[in-house]
Amino acid sequence: MRITVMTEGEQIISLDVDPQETVENVKALLEVETRVPLQQQQLLYSGREMRNVEKLSALGVKDEDLVMMVSNATSSTSTNDLSFNPDGSAVNPTAFQQHIRGDSNMMTQLFQTDPELAQALLGNDLNRLQDLLRERNRQRSQLRRQQDEELALLYADPFDVEAQKKIEAAIRQKGIDENWAAALEHNPEAFARVVMLYVDMEVNGVPLKAFVDSGAQSTIISKSCAERCGYVFCIIFTLFLCASAIEFLDNLFAILLRLLDQRYKGIAHGVGQSEILGRIHVAPIKIGSIFYPCSFLVLDSPNMEFLFGLDMLRKHQCIIDLNENVLRVGGGEVSVPFLQEKDIPSRFLDEEKYSKQASSSGTAVTTDKSNTVPAGGQSSGATPGGAAQGADFEAKVAKLAELGFGREAAVQALKLFNGNEEQAAGFLFG
Predict the structure, then answer these.
(1) Catalytic amino acids?
(2) pTM for the whole thing?
(3) Whole-angstrom Cα distance, residue 345 to residue 261?
(4) Where in the chain are the domains?
(5) Among 230, 271, 292, 332, which is most buried by a count of CB atoms within 10 Å?
(6) Mean pLDDT by 10 residues, the chain (430 residues)
(7) Which residues does residue 283 pair with via DSSP β-bridges, in sequence order?
(8) Can you identify the CATH homologous superfamily of domain 198-365?
(9) Neighbour-count burial of 69, counting CB atoms closer than 10 A to its CB (0-12 exposed, 13-18 middle, 19+ buried)
(10) Maximum distance among all alpha carbons in the chain?
């Protein structure tokens, strides 16, 4: 249909428009014809103002109808209020916010393209809005700078070494960006947070959230957790072995005194390092409904509690079944589910990196120089200057290295047992 628009200067303009056209689109056509910015236009039909979001048919506009266009009296002020500072922030954030809020089409587009900015416009925090506008301006500036650099490279001297380096870097970055975009589309799970594997266990009747870590060489318990469990790990195990309750009571106090073997003091090296206070050689842990014998290294590490390492995973023939999301123990006689994220204490989720630092996946380096030979151990006749001297010691290190152990681990194990090759090998395998 055709409508006639009369301006304040009595200029008459004929427009061919669709009845379903919005007033905002009509203003855009008039901006081309009259050079009057869309924001400064005010259209009147039958004495009533036509709002941007309304359609001509809804307002009752018919073919050959007359529409008046007047200039908004506050247009100059509004234009200034809607301008931006050099850093991208709005000169008048309140006016800018109200203006965008009043344009439903623009708000719809913002919710699709930039929901964060749309939420800020609907909120009441103007500081947040200003920060987002500055950030968007910075991003646009960076994008323009990258485009300018790419354009400059197209016209760069092909024999310029520096230009060739920049071209190579741009090609490599483009490949990275394409790979990232492909991952977002085809493998979005790769960007999600991975929750580590935890299961419920009991030590001496005390429930624990055990961190299952096949990358840790040894099973570890923290000093604080051991104290909470009362250092009485062998009570149930001793009940199985003792002939009577009286024998159990007679042995209980001795068990408590000699439970922590301090001959195994040292330093656990992993991502970080922690002090090894000693070793508890045997204690029953309850997995599901069955008790299993287990040994621990006790670490002075306040940021982890209990780590079920590779040594016990191998000993009890455990299977980490990620298809069924369970840990199978004893070749499948017991299956316990891995905990969901909601069941894992938040402090564990925040401190998983500390569990890795406490992991003994590296080398246990002995630091207790006053008692390096375990009770009943035999000396290999090393020189007084220490076991680390002479070709004989290097030959023993080489033999242990052939078994698959690192040189540093072999050296420290030999030092621990004063050069006894068999005891060192047993320690490394254990």
Answers:
(1) 213
(2) 0.45
(3) 31
(4) 2-73, 134-191, 198-365, 373-430
(5) 292
(6) 82 86 87 82 83 86 86 53 81 85 81 86 87 89 82 78 83 87 84 85 84 88 76 44 44 47 76 76 87 86 80 92 92 89 76 46 40 33 38 80 77 79 74
(7) 294
(8) Acid Proteases (2.40.70.10)
(9) buried
(10) 116
